Amino acid sequence: MEKNIILSVKDLEVKFKVRDRELTAIRNVSLDFEEGKVVAIVGESGSGKSVFTKTFTGMLDINGRISNGEIYFEGKDISKITDDKDWEQIRGKKIATVFQDPMTSLNPVRTIGYQISEVIIKHQGKSKEEAKQIAIELMEKVGIKDAANRYDEYPFMYSGGMRQRIVIAIALACRPKILICDEPTTALDVTIQAQIIELIKELAKEYEFTTIYITHDLGVVANVADIVAVMYAGQIVEYGLVEEIFYNPQHPYTWGLLSSLPQLGEKGDELFAIKGTPPSLFQEIKGDGFAPRSEYSMKIDFELEPPMFKVSDTHYAKTWLLDPRAPKVEKPKTIQNLHEKMLALTSKGGVYSDRDK
Amino acid sequence: MTETNREVLLDVKNLEVTFTNNRKKFRAVKDVSFQIYKGETFALVGESGSGKTTIGRAIIGLNETSDGDIIYKGKKINCKLSKEESKEMTRNIQMIFQDPAASLNERATISYCIAEGLDNYKLYKDETERQQKIDAALESVGLLPEHKSRYPHEFSGGQRQRVGVARAMVMEPEFIVADEPISALDVSIRAQVLNLMNKFKIERGLTYLFIAHDLSVVRYFSDRIAVINKGRIVEIAPTEDLFAYPLHPYTRSLLQSVPMPDPRIEKNKELIVYDESKRDLSGEKPKLREIVKDHYVFMNDREKAEYEVQLQKMIEERKQLKVG
To answer: B121 to chain A nearest CA, in Å?
Structure first.
């Protein structure tokens, strides 16, 4: 099958200097992004998911640097760009980002209209009048009612969900090829979250951009993703189609993430919690980074880093459990028959119950 | 399912909280009534701005109330209390806050953070007992005595929230208001803090008011749920009933928006957006009324008739589901 790769990351390594010491936030990550697909990157905070995507737009903090690897976008290795002028040709224009908190991404003392049209004037060279027209159209596209009148209002006059819609409108003003959504709904209410997710999906269809979602909410992942990449301690430990990750997970860390879903908790029983804490990134991590927290670790896990094992053409996992010599281990009981279990919690209209089972 | 002679620990009656801003009045909490029984976990669920936190804060006396009663163990507490009484209340009702980074004094050691309440109330005979109490509180939340001399910033989010729990527990309260205690935490850490709170509930017979927006957590954690929208409670029911037979359209829309961690379900879901202006609001003024035992819905007679039909239909569907 011919795949159209829009962004290709090869052996990426990112280091940060913190108080005279260096930590490795991304450890040899390779990932191809297929055009038009939605890729969700999941993991705990500190797993490196935000840092990873920040390298695509040259937005690493000043103490961070790409120490190894390449990032190919439109045939060019963008990891080598150092000039901010060059970045401006990509950042916001071809690869745009929607951040978690809309209040911090908007300028509180500028009107909504100004902030959208500013981008259009700058990147598309339109006149002020034309830009206003496009901006109002965009505002309508993202679901702002009465857009022409709300054009001159300030961010504080908008609700949280509306602000996030504006941020999305700004991100789309330049018709980017890739939209990075960094926890776009974490600061929003569930009902608003559902609407924003829906909006991004519709816009992706219409504007034909590739979406990269960063989230820790597996419910959101299930809703939006075509492909899921699970990150742990700066590495991608499992990668596959969304159904493969939910129904046939292979890495013990993915098992842990799924097992700790509160939906799977039986009342009165303890909820599953992954033991311990992620490893310190200041030290060199030997073997499998998850081994000290895993119930399934073997001797080799502490000695040698596992390669990516192929599960199917679309599904890979970085665990020694997939080595033919490893003992056969089944995924935990809690997450077996996940779909049946979730279905039991749902009835028509998305109403959940297990009262009558 | 529920016994009739449960002891009511907290009784909230017709509570109103009004904020005044530039002489404009805003009723954040409107005619809210509910009871919390001893030993149960009662959840208050709603979106931001619904007034759920305001209710929690009114109970611990941080927000003034403009009307109604908050009765704790038969005694009204939302009025001027004597010094003694007020002290007693503060000790018995503790709060766990959403953001442990913001609620702990960053310039104080963990030992001080935990012992502050003890010190204010002189809840120890001597220094040895004080230290013992701090150590015990730390241990009960899975932290070590050596953590005592550290500062909050040296801890991870999950550990900090455990300090927040220890700080509340050391006072040996009867009742805890937990305001989104796990929203700021990572998925894998959430389970740890929830397990901890559950442990205290079982061991010490604690009663919780759990304020949250995440229905999947609430389902696992609470015995009864009240759904609040724009300062008004629209539905109260035992957890399983609320999830099986949600009646108020707002409850239904809220339940439906929570994404299920299952791609096959999520990808086939249709979104219901709740819009009050599109609802038929004819008939007399609605009130919170019981529809079946323990299940209350904000409704008038016309709506009650509709909900009864709906409920019957859902029960039938459920039976069929079981047979099929």
So the answer is: 34
